[in-house]
Write a structure and sequence with these properties.
The chain is mainly β. It has five helices and 36 strands.
Length: 517
C-alpha cells in the first residue's frame, strides 16, 4: 500500500476527431477508466519528455501550454502559418516552424514558455526528419545544438542571446543525434559521396574539447542511418541502411547494426546470427544491454551486453518490434505493421517466457511508465477501421479493450521510472487491493471468493485453438467407432441413426452368410 501511495498515478492521453481526453490510468476501479479531462478541441497534442508540460494545438494556429500538475493553461501563443511545433524535454522552451514567404524571414522561433518571449530566431528552408527539431536539447536541457551546413553549432541553453558559442566542423554532414542523459556527446552522420565512404563520428560536446572525433566508423553502401544512444551516453547503436541489396535477397535493401563506444573500446559491426535486415533495436533503461530483432522471417531476437556478447536468445517468429519495459525486467517481442500482431512477453531477469497473445493491426505500442502494463493502439490515418486501444498485463493477459469509430493518438503521460516502486512490489500490492475489495463486497461463499481471487490475478495468456478442417471435425468419434471405443462426446441424432442402420446391415449380412453356408 505504501509503495502505491508514494507512486504517481498513471494517465492516458486519447485524441479523436472531437479533440483529446485524459484518462486515469490502470488499475481501473470498475473495469472502466475514469475521465480526468473531458474532450478538448484540438488538432494535435503532446507531452514534454518529462511529463511536466502539455502542448495543445488549437484551431486558428493557437498553441496552449498547460502545467500537468493542475492542467491549467500557463501560456498561449498565436502563430500564423504554423507547420510544426514541439516542446523541449523539460518544457522550458517551445519551438515553432512557420512557412516562410521570403528567405529573409526567420521562420524557426524558440519561445520561453514561462514568459512567452522569443529567445532565438533563425531561417530554415524546409523541414525533414533529419532537420526537425531544429535545435536539439539534452534531457536536462543543459546542452543545446543544431545541424548546420557542414558543421554542428552549440548554444548556451541558459542564454540564447549569446548566439552560437561553439562549432564543430564536419564536411558533408547530413544528420546528428545528441546524447540525452547526459548530453555529453553528439553523433554525426556523413553519407557516402563520390567514392568516399560514409561515416559515423562521435564528438565531445565540451567547448574546450578538440574538434577531432573520439570514435569513428566508415562504410560503403549507406543511404540512411538510425542513431540510438544509451542512457549514460557511453554507447551508440547505428542501423545503417542501403537502398539496394547486392545479394538480391531483399527488395527493401540491406541493413547492418554498428556499435560505437565513447571510450573507444568498441567500433564495429554487431555479429548477428541470422542473415537479413535489422527490424528493430532498443536499449534497456539502465543502458547496460540492448535487444535486437533481425533476419529474414521468421525473425530472430537476441539480447546483448555492452561488449556485444549475447546474453539471452528470445527465439524466432513473425516479429519486427521489441519493447523493453522501463524497469528493465520485462520485454515484449511483437510483429506489427504488415505482420499478424503476435506478441511474446519475457521476464528478462528470470530468463523465461511469460505468455503469448495477439494484437492485430496495432500501429503504436508502449509500456506504462511503471512497467506493469503494455498498451497497443490501432489509429488513423494508418488504419481507418477497427480503431481501438488494448492494455495487457506484463504477462500478456488482456486487461482492457475499447473500440472507437476514429482514433488518432494514444499516449501514456511520461513519468520517471524511479518514481515508482519495484515491479514485483507493485504487482503484489495491486493484487492485495483486489482481494480486499472483493472481501468488503461480501458477495458469494468463501469457496467462490477463493476461486475469484485465483482467477482475478493475472490469468495466463491463452493460445488460440489450432485450425481443424471440416472433414476432421468428427474424426474423434469416427476413430472411436472404428476401434470399438466409446466416443468422447455425445453423437448427434443423425450419427446415431446411421450407426444403427450400419449395425442392422451387418447383422443381416451375417445371417445371410450363415444360411448360405
Amino acid at each position: 500500500m505504501a509503495a502505491i501511495d508514494r507512486s504517481p498515478s498513471l494517465e492516458i492521453l486519447v485524441r479523436g476527431p472531437e479533440g483529446f481526453s485524459l484518462w486515469n490510468g490502470p488499475p481501473f476501479s470498475n473495469g472502466e477508466p475514469g475521465i480526468k479531462i473531458e474532450k478538448v478541441p484540438c488538432s494535435n497534442v503532446n507531452f514534454s519528455e518529462d511529463g511536466s508540460k502539455l502542448m495543445v494545438l488549437k484551431p486558428d494556429s493557437v498553441i496552449s501550454i498547460n502545467d500537468c500538475s493542475s492542467y491549467k493553461e500557463i501560456r498561449s501563443f498565436q502563430i500564423p502559418n504554423l507547420s510544426a511545433a514541439t516542446l523541449s524535454p523539460c518544457g522550458t522552451f517551445l519551438q515553432t516552424f512557420q512557412r516562410a514567404s521570403t528567405p529573409q524571414e526567420k521562420n524557426v522561433i524558440l519561445w520561453n514558455t514561462e514568459t512567452g518571449d522569443p529567445v532565438y530566431h533563425q531561417f530554415q528552408k524546409n523541414m525533414t526528419k533529419a532537420t526537425w527539431p531544429s535545435i536539439r536539447f539534452s534531457s536536462d536541457e543543459v546542452v543545446a545544438c543544431r545541424l548546420a551546413t557542414n558543421e554542428i553549432q552549440f548554444f548556451d541553453a541558459h542564454d540564447f542571446s549569446k548566439g552560437v558559442v561553439h562549432r564543430i566542423r564536419v564536411p558533408g554532414l547530413a544528420a546528428i543525434e545528441l546524447s540525452k542523459t547526459p548530453g555529453s556527446h553528439v553523433a554525426a552522420f556523413v553519407p557516402e559521396s563520390k567514392g568516399v565512404p560514409g561515416s559515423i563520428q562521435i564528438f565531445s560536446c565540451g567547448k574546450d574539447s578538440e574538434s577531432q572525433p573520439i570514435a569513428r566508423r566508415s562504410f560503403f553502401r549507406c543511404s540512411t542511418v538510425q542513431l540510438n544512444w544509451n542512457r549514460g551516453s557511453t554507447g551508440l547503436l547505428a542501423v545503417v541502411q542501403s537502398d539496394v541489396d547486392k545479394t538480391n535477397q531483399s527488395y527493401y535493401g540491406e541493413s547492418k547494426l554498428n556499435y560505437l563506444t565513447t571510450d573507444g573500446t568498441y567500433e564495429g559491426v554487431v555479429s548477428l546470427r541470422k542473415e537479413g535486415p535489422v527490424h528493430d533495436v532498443q536499449w534497456s533503461y539502465s543502458g547496460s544491454e540492448f535487444a535486437v530483432v533481425y533476419g529474414f522471417m521468421p525473425a530472430k531476437a537476441t539480447v546483448f551486453d555492452k561488449k556485444c556478447n549475447p546474453l539471452l536468445e528470445l527465439g524466432t517468429g513473425p516479429y519486427n518490434t521489441i519493447r523493453w519495459n522501463p524497469k528493465g525486467k520485462f520485454l515484449c517481442l511483437a510483429g506489427f505493421g504488415n505482420l499478424p500482431g503476435d506478441m511474446a512477453f519475457w521476464d528478462y531477469k528470470e530468463k523465461k517466457q511469460l505468455g503469448t497473445t495477439k494484437a492485430e493491426w496495432s500501429v503504436t505500442s508502449e509500456w506504462s511508465p511503471d512497467g506493469r502494463y503494455f498498451m497497443t493502439a490501432t489509429t488513423a490515418p494508418r488504419l481507418q477501421v477497427d480503431n481501438g486501444i488494448k492494455i495487457f498485463h506484463h504477462n500478456g493477459s488482456l486487461y482492457f479493450k475499447k473500440m472507437f469509430d476514429k482514433l488518432y493518438q494514444v499516449d501514456w503521460k511520461p513519468e520517471s521510472p524511479e518514481r515508482f516502486a519495484e515491479i514485483v512490489d507493485l504487482i503484489k500490492s495491486i493484487d492485495s487491493l483486489k482481494v480486499e475489495e472483493k472481501k468488503s463486497q461480501g458477495q458469494g461463499s468463501k469457496s467462490s471468493q477463493a476461486s475469484t481471487k485465483s482467477t482475478s490475478a493475472n490469468p495466463p495468456a491463452q493460445k488460440p485453438a489450432a485450425y481443424r478442417p471440416p472433414h476432421a471435425k468428427n474424426s474423434a468419434a469416427i476413430q472411436a467407432e472404428l476401434f470399438g471405443e466409446a466416443p468422447k462426446e455425445a453423437m448427434s441424432k443423425n450419427a446415431l441413426r446411421n450407426k444403427k442402420k450400419r449395425e442392422k446391415q451387418k447383422e443381416k449380412k451375417a445371417t445371410e452368410d450363415a444360411g448360405g453356408s
